[in-house]
Amino acid sequence: MAASSSRVMLGPLVAAIDQGTSSTRFLVFNAKTAELLSHHQVEINQSFPKEGWVEEDPKEILQSVYECMERTCEKLTQLNVDISNIKAIGVTNQRETTLVWDKETGEPLYNAIVWLDLRTQSTVERLINKTPGRNKNHLKHKTGLPISTYFSAVKLRWLMDNVDEVAEAVLTHRAMFGTVDSWLIWCLTGGKSGGVHCTDVTNASRTMLFNIHTLDWDPELCKYFDIPMEILPKVRSSSEIYGLMVSPHLETRESRFTIWQSNGRIWCLGDQSAALVGQMCFQEGQTACLLKVVLIYLFNCYLLQPVMSEHGLLTTVAYKLGRDKPACYALEGSVAIAGAVVRWLKDNLGIIQTSTELEKLAASVGTSYGCYFVPAFSGLYAPYWEPSARGIICGLTQFTNKSHLAFAALEAVCFQTREILDAMNQDSGIPLTQLQVDGGMTSNRLLMQLQADILCIPVVKPSMPETTALGAAMAAGAAEGVSVWSLRPEDLSEVTSEKFEPQINPEESEFRYARWKKAVQRAMNWETTEPISNGNGETSIFSSVPLGFYILGSMLMLIGAKYIAGQCPL
């Protein structure tokens, strides 16, 4: 930090709200130097009402934003930084997470259904069964997406079918739908007293209701899912003024802030899209990898026209940096479980007490000793899109210990990235020569080295890890009417970075990767799509196909044995 006497010369500041799956942060940057001046972070609680269900409290999400803003402003004031110099606020958010609220009361009508929630699996299967040839890519020509539990349309359909309050609000024209960005922007710009109900193109492109060619909601898609278009937010570009922030909660702030969202989305930028901007991926073919606490995203920019993947990737809107600017597109590979493996080892198995312990534990052995971990807790996303897969650990021996399992967990992140990268190379026909990475997991140096070893290419990590929030701030500061941040290549600050070079030979990398692929096949087709209920709303053991066959076979053998014994008395 510079001395307080020099802070008068800081110039315009731009802030970013980074609302992710596991936490919320508020960060403030110097628009001239891209220096991070201060930030605050608050963890977000998740609830798991049933197996496969993941929810978050919309009010807690909103309150975490207020708290982060207040604490960050207090820190800036202590540093003699004039917070009235904050000229705009960008929003970057977890994307497909789905909310519905009452526009008259301002109250959420149900918890937010998180993007990795699996409750709609049977709905997805029924939709796929009704398509010609049972084709999960039936809507891909418009949406760029397969029919999957991942995206918002099926979550919204579930809310309308299963939550009375939502169904009634839709019928009485009081319902508002949105992803997290829409909820935050509506609340921050006034809520029931004139809040702005909008989203940006990047978030909208993750709903299965948005046409990525026309860049608007598609009437045919809405009809397909039977969703009224009146409940949808207005779609805006990723870099424009959405509204003015009005919040009685921020008593320390005298000024109102311009609200910008650069989807994530980049990543509202939804977070993934924001990472592209933060890593200055403005040229065709540039690739960024976001290693989040929960998941992995890998993007390859294709600029002005969408390219449909033939190898299991998604076609998505990367960003649209202005109302009159063209949309830029990307191929995206999404992996559901990456950093969440660390949380699982900590919270479920108790192998580690803190996330930072994992690197030390894995480094103590330097190998998985033939143990492979496929963390398909919510099925497999790209490039498989297989919701029936489940997590598996294989290759265990009596020699295997928790350190080997820790190493296998880190390798799993790298193998999943390799699968997506292979698909991108096949789609583009141009092998990637290095990978730019971002996100919370990049602080794990062993993971970065493993990633370079498994990919057989250098991995480049920026010295300033907050490039997702930086991307949101850049898009906000560059918006027309704000214009305190230039996105012209000649004006962008050079980002310092660290490069990790491969340290193993390609043959060893290929051998380990082949074993991983073998483990993935073992994880496939583990669950049925229609769980059998025992009458109490709980899933029967027969919903697991292998276990069901085993038990049924055992019962038949016992019955047969008794029958034979009855026919042949001693």
Describe the protein.
The N and C termini lie far apart (91 Å). The protein has a domain of 244 residues: 2-Layer Sandwich (Nucleotidyltransferase, domain 5). The strands form seven sheets. It has a seven-stranded mixed sheet. The relative contact order is 0.12. With 570 residues, the chain is of the alpha+beta class. A hairpin with a 5-residue loop joins strand 2 and strand 3. The protein has 16 helices and 23 strands. Helix 9 packs across helix 14, helix 11 packs across helix 12 and helix 12 packs across helix 13. 33% of the residues lie in helices and 19% in strands. One of its GO terms (cellular component) is mitochondrial outer membrane. InterPro entries: ATPase_NBD, Carb_kinase_FGGY, Carb_kinase_FGGY_CS, FGGY_C, FGGY_N, GK1-3_metazoan-type, Glycerol_kin. Belongs to the FGGY kinase family. Its EC number is 2.7.1.30. It is found in: Cytoplasm; Mitochondrion outer membrane.
